[in-house]
């Protein structure tokens, strides 16, 4: 999900910080080229950096100046709401990566889940199978180390992350099929999770948002 209000706020903050050429390569880091180009142009950017002459022409038809050469000077952390080089929050995150609860299951103490049984329940609990796996950018290194947000509370990813799903320990909290599962972004406790992901995976925030931006279904919210 891409937040229109966070995108507008990030574009404004980035341009006010002094930038004039925004880096919109890789489909605006997975956020959607046209929408981000419109936002930064409205905020005062003079041009945007893109990947191909075809994108330059497509944006020209929208009245936006684009180039495939030169260096960007708009701070991408401010624009996209990513953590700073020090891992600190900047502007509100523009992207919120969301899955859904597919099913729930009681797990007895000692029982294991997912490939290789890298997680065994220390006590009786309930786990949820949720959409989102390494094909959608939920990096395998996050299994047994990162949390997700369900109904305003954090719950751990347990076991290995599979291609299109992963398992969450609900730790006694209720969950229904179809409930939203936030991996990072939004305004709740998972808002700044991308910084933790960067620590765990040794990937940059740019890489972590570009992968789901390219492979997950994109939607828009206020």
UniProtKB/TrEMBL annotation:
InterPro entries: Ala_racemase (IPR000821), Ala_racemase/Decarboxylase_C (IPR009006), Ala_racemase_C (IPR011079), PLP-binding_barrel (IPR029066). Residues 94-221 form the Alanine racemase C-terminal domain. Gene3D superfamilies: Alanine racemase (3.20.20.10), Lyase, Ornithine Decarboxylase, Chain A, domain 1 (2.40.37.10). Keywords: Isomerase, Pyridoxal phosphate. GO terms for cellular component: cytosol. One of its GO terms (biological process) is D-alanine biosynthetic process. Its cofactor is pyridoxal 5'-phosphate. GO terms for molecular function: alanine racemase activity; pyridoxal phosphate binding. Pfam families: Ala_racemase_C (PF00842). The keyword Mitochondrion does not apply. This is Alanine racemase. It comes from Microbacterium paraoxydans. The lineage of its organism: Bacteria, Bacillati, Actinomycetota, Actinomycetes, Micrococcales.
